[in-house]
Amino acid sequence: MSLDQQSSSPAEQHGNDPAQAQSPAQAQSPAQPQAQSPAQPQAQSRGTSGLAIAGLILAFMAAPIGFIMSLIAFFKTGKGRAGGRGLAIAGLIVSVLIMGGAIALGVVLAKSTVADQGCTDGKAAILNSTDDPAELQTTIDGLNAAADKANSDEVSAAMRALADDYSQLKTATETGEIPEGIEEKVANDAAKIDSLCTIGG
Prior knowledge:
- By secondary structure, the chain is mainly α.
- It folds into two domains: 62 residues, no CATH class; 81 residues, no CATH class.
């Protein structure tokens, strides 16, 4: 073999195709896979909890149910869970305030004389009264009946006091002698009934 043939390049030995020429290291090593970057974890999108939304809405409409739903939503929401913890907390606060207000109102009304049967019947008797002296006895009878039905001693006493005032007025219309201070007494006794039998009176 001549020196020219020995010094020929590998590309010339393979048909003069440089693309087919490989180094000995390339010829011996198998193809290596390309290094892949570690997969980035995709943030899982979690929407707002429907339970939290329903709990807040029901807190206004049906506070006890809204409270229960908001409490469940509170434990099912938060970091790494569904969103809506703020709504759940708002539902809890609203429902507690409404239930507390309802209980307080119930206690006030239970101690109040506004719903007393004596108040209801007594006010009806007063509203149905007229200026006709002949009708005064009907009003007096209505006030005395209301006093008998009253649960509160204060309401009963106030109804009887006004019935007595009307009795004096009836006598005054029959005799022509008006008792001194009767008008002021009627006004005071009527104001007492109004304060006992009216909310905020």
